[in-house]
Design brief:
By secondary structure, the chain is mostly helical. It contains two helices and no strands. It has one domain. It starts with a helix and ends with a helix.
Length: about 80
């Protein structure tokens, strides 16, 4: 590809940052999911289901972002 060394290094830093953010998103997902289950008695089953689905979708977005940077890393690999 047409990446200069400086651009390649900056891209690698951004890729690392996305991987770190995805890991953080996984940790937040765990905490939020735990809190939802702790609130189980106060929630209707449908509310609990929808909250858990929203958490899943947000985590899926982080996973997809990680997949994109993995493809980007493959593109800039020498």
């Amino acid at each position: 590809t047409g990446f200069a060394e400086r651009e390649r290094e900056e891209t690698k830093r951004m890729i690392h940052s996305v991987h770190k953010k995805e890991w953080e998103a996984d940790q937040v997902r765990y905490v939020i999911t735990k809190k939802i289950y702790e609130m189980e008695d106060a929630l209707t089953p449908m509310n609990e289901y929808h909250l858990l689905k929203i958490v899943d979708w947000v985590d899926d977005m982080a996973d997809h972002a990680e997949n994109v940077v993995d493809w980007l890393r493959a593109m800039i690999a020498k």
